Task: structure prediction
Amino acid sequence: MNNDIIEGKWNQLKGSFREKWGDITDDELQQAAGKKDRLVGLIQEKYGMTTEKAEAAYNKWYERAEEPDTWETIWNNVQGRWTELSGHFKQNYGQSVDDDLAQSRGRRDILAGMIQREYNVSRGEAFEMIDDWAYGSYRQPNIPSGGAR
Result:
């Protein structure tokens, strides 16, 4: 991935980056100026990931960021279909308790917290797991409530 391309598209991609990693401040994004190494460093620092995991998360985001749908659109879709998707979520992350799932109403932060606690992973890893699941559910809208991963 060419850093010049990222820097050149930064104004277009910044909003998508902010949606995905909301703990990174606007000032930090401004200082990073679209430079991949700085952005990976911010992900690593804010979400407690190793350099390798932060870079992999960044690369996955970058590939998806060029699609027309935003993370906000994806999560709005998940929340709107939560009754239908909660069974699929439970099958993927079966340790979750039914009451916890019902109360979450598909909210990204609550689901990530559940995954973080139950699987003993970092906050960043939990968000990555949740986002991968949401992205797959969004791209495959006909997933039955108990469907396989």
